[in-house]
Here is the input.
Amino acid sequence: MYKKNVQRKTTKPIVNIGIIILIVFIGIFSYRVINILNDNNERGGFAYVQILNFGMPLIENKIYDEASYAENNLSVKAVCLEALGLSSIDNFFIVNNEVNFYNQGFSKEADITTVALDSFNINDSTIVRGEKDSNTLDASLKKTLDQSQVEVLIYHSHTTENYAEAGGDTLDENYSVVGVGDEITRELEETYGIAVIHDKTNHSVSYNNSYDRSNETVSRYLEKYGDFKIIIDLHRDSGSNKSAFTTNINGESAAKIMFVTTKNSTKYAKNQALVDELYNKANEIFPGLTKPTYTYNRGINGFNLGLSDGSVLIECGADSNTSAEAQATGRLIARLIAEHINKK
Here is the structure.
C-alpha cells in the first residue's frame, strides 16, 4: 500500500469590489460632511443636536428640544443632501439639464437684453400713459405723530443676523436685521405717524440664551410703557437658494417674509389671530410677499410671544438676500402694521 499525495489547491482571497466601493463612498461622504459642518457659520449646531437626540433620547426630553432651533436650517437631512450634491435640485436645475437653451450662458436671474426690433417712430399717439403703481403706500393711513404715545416695539433676539454683504454675523447695522428695523421705524413714523421704540440691544452674545436676554428687555419696556399694539421680534431666515426668499413687489426686488408662531406661547390664540390678520392683508395688497406661516409646538421660551397679545415674530428674508432687498421689505412690513393700527 502507498499513500497518494493529494496536493490541495490554495484559494486566493476573494476581493469584494462592492465592499471596496462602499468604503470609498463612505470615506468621501464623511469627508464632505465634515467640510460642510466646518465651513458653515450657522449657530446653534442643529445637526449635532439632532444626532445627539437620536442617540440619547433622555437628553432630548430633559435638555434639548429641536423646536428650539427654529431658525436653524442645517439639519442632518440638509447636510446629507449637500454632501450628496442634491441640495440644489429644483425645477430650474432639472430643466437646465434637459434644455440646451439654458446652457448658453443663461441663469435663473438672466434677462435677455438683446432683441431685434423693426425701426419705428415715437410720438404722442404711440405712447400710453399709466399711473405709477403706488400700492406700497396709502396716504389714508397717515396720522399726526405723537412720540408720547408709543404703539410699536421692535427688537431682535438675534441682533447680529446678517444679510449677504456681511457674509456672517455682524454688528454693522447697515447689513443686519437692525437696519431693517430702522427702515420699519422710519417708515412708520414719517409716513404713517406711528411712534416706535426700536431696541438695538445685542441679545446674541450667547446664541442659546438669546431669548432669555430679549425676554428681560421686552419685560422692562412693558413695565415702563404698559402694553404695545404690536411687539415685533425681527429676524431673518437662513438659506442658500435665494429665489426661495425673494419676490418682486411693484417692480422692486424684495425679501419674502415668514411669520412664526409657537403653541407653547401662553397667548398663542391671540398671537395666531394677529399673524392671520397680517398674513391675509399681505396676500391682499402684496401678493407673493409671504411664505406660509410656520408654527412650532415648543419654541424656546415660547419665543417670548406670551409677553403680549400683540407679539409677533417675523423672519425678513434670509442670509442670501441683500440688505437692500430686506430693507425694501421693511417698508412693506410698515404698511402692514399701519393697516392694523390706523385702518379706520
Q: What stands out?
A: DSSP finds nine helices and eight strands in the chain. The CA atoms of residues 150 and 225 lie 8 Å apart.
